[in-house]
Amino acid sequence: MNNIKRISLMTAIFLTVALVSSSVGAGVIPINGTIAGSESDAPFPDPAEGFYVNGSVTSTDTELGPFTMFYSAPVEFAFLGMPNTGGSRLIDANGDSILTWSLANTAGSCANGDLHVVSRDTIVGGTGRYAGARGSFTTDRCVNLVTGETSGTISGTIVVRGR
């Protein structure tokens, strides 16, 4: 085999590997499991107007693998009963993250008297293997307003481009 054919064959192999490896990890990742964590509230400058919710939950039982989700949202008393907007960031065990925009509603009380919160998150991007990710998920959880403990479920899908 002459050198030109050898170089052409090696180039073809390299390009094939590069193209195949760019699609590794592409597809839909279901995210269904349980979450547990805690949140805290910080009052607005005028506490009569509302407060900020800051929290974090972890999960180890999803196809996404173990992750921690951090979230934050303002709660304005004038708009109670209406969806609150906020955002969240899920960080997986590798440090890659998913960024979201969320709408949260209080849905009454849980069976044990805790506050029932349902949040619908739209994935707007991410880092690492989640760069350019899209999709959505829902968290359905109960929050103990005295201790800040929260737990519930997470379900949805993440659409990744792959590398």
Task: Provide key terms for this protein.
single chain; 163 residues; mainly beta; eight-stranded antiparallel barrel; 12% helix; 56% strand; disordered N terminus
Short description:
By secondary structure, the chain is mainly beta. The protein has one helix spanning 3-22, and strands at residues 27-30, 33-43, 50-59, 67-76, 84-92, 97-109, 115-126, 134-143, 149-160.
Helix-strand topology string: HEEEEEEEEE
The rounded distance between the terminal residues' Cα atoms is 34 Å
Q: Roughly how many Å is the radius of gyration?
A: 21 Å
Strand order of the largest sheet: 2-3-4-5-6-7-8-9
Molecular shape: globular
How large is the share of residues in beta strands?
Answer: over 45%
Tally of individual helices = 1
The helix fraction, in percent, is 10-25%
Q: Spans with pLDDT under 50 lasting ≥5 residues?
A: 1-24
Mean pLDDT: 83
Biggest β-sheet: count, sense, barrel?
8 strands, antiparallel, barrel
Assembly state: single chain
Class by helix and strand content? mainly beta
Number of strands: 9
Characterise the protein shown here.
This protein is mainly beta and 163 residues long. 12% of the residues lie in helices and 56% in strands. The chain has one helix spanning 3-22, and strands at 27-30, 33-43, 50-59, 67-76, 84-92, 97-109, 115-126, 134-143, 149-160. An eight-stranded antiparallel beta barrel has the order 2-3-4-5-6-7-8-9. Strand 7 (115-126) and strand 8 form a beta hairpin. The model is unreliable at 1-24 (pLDDT under 50).
